[in-house]
């Protein structure tokens, strides 16, 4: 069988596997979105605790962050799926297990992004909140966090893409995600076609969409701080130059209304 016949057979197999690949892709999207939402909540809570001057809040937060950053996502996934039931805590579904493992692991990494962004806010802003006798929750909510939010989005965007790729490990607990369906496609075609062609395109397109959405979110956050254009200005097409000013034969205008 020559190369062209082999590729034709591969695409025929891809057409047959299409519905399964689509279902696996949607499951990966759900894991990424829900896992990212949980990770963000955990990151904000642990990040605020780690940045607090209160040792009783800062200490436990540091222990939790370092523990989940220092252990493997795969180990945490196995622990939640196999060990927790031994203590009488059985989760309803493998999807819930995957979301919890992804959320806790990447939430610990995100907590450092939150804490670092809080400390990156200029000292003058912190001093102003002290001068106004603002409480810690009040100063964080009204002054510090809105400024830190714009700073932490690039780091959170990177973690979101890592979470997307990390979701591929959930196949080991029985979830038929996109990675699992790619492996089934590999059995019918080849590793090159399945992973290097279909898999790379699928994961790349999803990562590209997530990255673009995070860029828009960053632009919106900066605009609220007066540091950039609005989303409408970013998404609107570039205004065209008037025909008269763009005409190659027209002379440039000078102040006073005359021409050179």
From TrEMBL:
Gene3D superfamilies: MetI-like (1.10.3720.10). The chain crosses the membrane at residues 25-51, 63-84, 90-109, 148-173, 193-215. The keyword Membrane applies. Keywords: Amino-acid transport, Cell membrane, Membrane, Transmembrane, Transmembrane helix, Transport. It is a multi-pass membrane protein. CDD domains: TM_PBP2. Residues 25-214 form the ABC transmembrane type-1 domain. It is found in: Cell membrane. It holds the Pfam family BPD_transp_1. InterPro entries: AA_ABC_transptr_permease_3TM, ArtM/GltK/GlnP/TcyL/YhdX-like, MetI-like, MetI-like_sf. Belongs to the binding-protein-dependent transport system permease family. NCBIfam families: HEQRo_perm_3TM. This is Polar amino acid transport system permease protein. The lineage of its organism: Bacteria, Bacillati, Actinomycetota, Actinomycetes, Micrococcales.
């Amino acid at each position: 069988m020559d190369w062209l016949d082999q590729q034709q057979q591969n695409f025929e197999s891809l057409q047959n596997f299409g519905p399964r690949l689509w279902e696996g892709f949607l499951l990966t999207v759900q894991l990424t979105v829900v896992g990212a939402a949980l990770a963000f909540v955990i990151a904000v809570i642990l990040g605020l605790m780690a940045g607090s001057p209160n040792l009783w809040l800062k200490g436990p937060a540091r222990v939790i962050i370092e523990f989940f950053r220092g252990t493997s996502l795969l180990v945490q996934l196995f622990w939640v799926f196999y060990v927790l039931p031994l203590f009488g805590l059985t989760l309803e579904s493998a999807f819930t297990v995957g979301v919890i493992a992804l959320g806790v692991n990447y939430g610990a990494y995100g907590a450092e992004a939150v804490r670092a962004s809080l400390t990156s806010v200029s000292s003058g802003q912190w001093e102003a909140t002290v001068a106004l006798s603002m409480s810690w929750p009040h100063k964080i909510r009204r002054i510090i966090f809105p400024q830190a939010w714009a700073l932490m989005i690039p780091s959170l965007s990177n973690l979101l893409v890592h979470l997307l790729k990390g979701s591929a490990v959930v196949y080991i607990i029985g979830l038929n995600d996109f990675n699992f369906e790619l492996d089934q496609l590999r059995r019918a075609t080849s590793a090159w076609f399945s992973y290097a062609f279909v898999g790379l395109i699928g994961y790349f397109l999803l990562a590209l969409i997530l990255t673009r959405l995070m860029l828009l979110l960053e632009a919106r956050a900066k605009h609220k701080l007066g540091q950039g254009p609005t989303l409408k200005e970013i998404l609107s097409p570039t205004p065209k130059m008037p025909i008269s000013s763009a005409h190659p034969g027209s002379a440039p205008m000078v102040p006073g209304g005359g021409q050179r």
